[in-house]
Amino acid sequence: MFFKQRGQAAIEFILSGGVLVVIYLSLYQTLIPAVEGNTDNLIAARKAIWERIRDDEKTLLSGNYRLNEHTKIFFNPLNRILPVNLEGKNLRVLRPLDESYVYPMVRLNDSWQARTSSELSSRPASLVVNNVLSGDVTRLVQDGIGRLFLAEELRSDSLVFGTISPDVVPPEAYQERN
Description:
By secondary structure, the chain is mostly helical. It is built from four helices and three strands, in the order αβαββαα. The N and C termini lie far apart (about 85 Å).
């Protein structure tokens, strides 16, 4: 009887081990390729969203997010008054071309930065309040006060209102972006 129980336990162990091996192999054949495919899709989605130059086939720009809806109230009049050109569509979204991208991704773009070397000085200069004082009348008054009080620091060629010196910008910032 003892040998009979040991034999039955051995047969049950072999059968349960066989069933577990069959389950493992069937899951291995389906789950592992699915995991690898999703990992590849995740890597491709990250690459498409973080590329330096936007690919119109893979991504699109959107302004459909909550903060943008609130800042439009401020940015639209500012863009009309000053030449700063703050864009509202600065959210890069993966374009749903097929079902392979299981991971929808977005990235807030850096489209508010200056794109040319002239914008490096003109955009901040347009936001400086003293830029209004840099007209011809102000220069005439400055030169008059500078001569009256013999103070060369007050003349228009030494005290310039609302200017941004492009010499303080590092040379690598002058690269134009698309």
